[in-house]
Amino acid sequence: MTDARLADLATRLPGLRLLTDAADLEHYGRDWTRRWTPAPLAIALPASVEEVQGVMRWASGHGVAVVPSGGRTGLSGGAVAANGELVLSLERMNRVLAFDPVDRMLTVQAGMPLQAVQEAAKAHDLVYPVDFAARGSCTIGGNIATNAGGIRVIRYGNTREWIAGLTVVTAAGERLELNRGLIKNSSGYDLRQLMIASEGTLGIVVEATVRLTSPPPPSQVMLLALPDLGALMQVFALFQSRLSLQAFEFFTDVALRHVLAHGAQRALEGDYPYYVVTEFDAAGEAAQEAALAAFEAGVEQGWILDGVIAQSEAQAAALWRLREGITESVAPRKPYKNDVSVRISAVPAFLQAMQELLGREYPQFEVVWFGHIGDGNLHINVLQPDDLDDAAFIAQCEQVTKRLAATLHDFGGSISAEHGIGLVKRPYLESTRSAAEIALMRGVRRAFDPQGILNPGKLFAPEPT
Asked: Which end of the chain has fewer CB atoms within 10 angstroms, the N or the C?
């Protein structure tokens, strides 16, 4: 606390928890990318909206950059603080504030973990349906900052569809109440939607009112083994036409090997190049018969080589682990990640182009693919060889990402489907957005944050001063 600026902050907000120990600076100053050396000024852990406002007024007065921090599970460097920023962690703001049974809405603080939001909804016999593997550690504020999607987008959409209102603190410390849970509101610009996916560059999301829905009908989970990439879309079209899908996820044999080595249980005998985990409504005998008929039709066409239907909740969880455990299983190999999307109709051609690109450019690397076929979102994990240092590995991967970005541009796709741009994907934003769009985005950012103190360097490079 020898820094005069921090001494002033402590004087202004005597109840604010501030951390400056080296271990805390390292822990809170980075996310899952692990590519930047964390070097924040300090960590602020406010317990109220008023404390967040006080921090931002202090930051504005001193010109101190602020990095908002949730669960720091991001994969794009969006929560990295490597240049003396103040990390503003919302982890203490993690409570349910209100439940409205008529509107079926839940108001929570932004630091609440996604799983806790889901459990709070369940306590009222409702569901908050956005879901993904990091549910236990990611926060609702971080989900909003990146418009997170996950494994059930095919049924429920992204985070954006479930946010009814936001409380936001601006760079100047003002408190904004955006939309206030209204279903219809045609009173000008929807600033709530601007905040979603803004990666903390327009304001600090401190509270969220989320929409809830009825629990889905009973479902079944099926694991399928497929012969090739072409069969993926054939099986998806077949199942989508006959079943009410909740999820449709694919992964490769390489991904499966890593998950099995990490402790998951094999569900099918034999080795196959591609796999699908799908979940679908199975409320009655007719729905279950339809699922079996769809499976048999896929086998007859040669699109499905083998499969298994879960016979219990435990077996369903075990099948889902084969997909959800991939990220954790490859983490020790420090993967270079791409998170891309194209229109669903373009998936087959894009998969073929991507397969050729990766085979040509990454012959010396192990590549793990998986993704959300039903919404056009694909994840590529390139695993770092033991004999290659970090800098050389990243440099080689970034050269290929330039070609991948060009391919995405040709397909009208996005370099970031659900993890944000952050620092990692900033050089490739122009493959997704036109120069005119980026100029307008910069203008929006200047309007909300004239000093450029909110998460600087994320999304696009800071403008010259």
From this structure: C
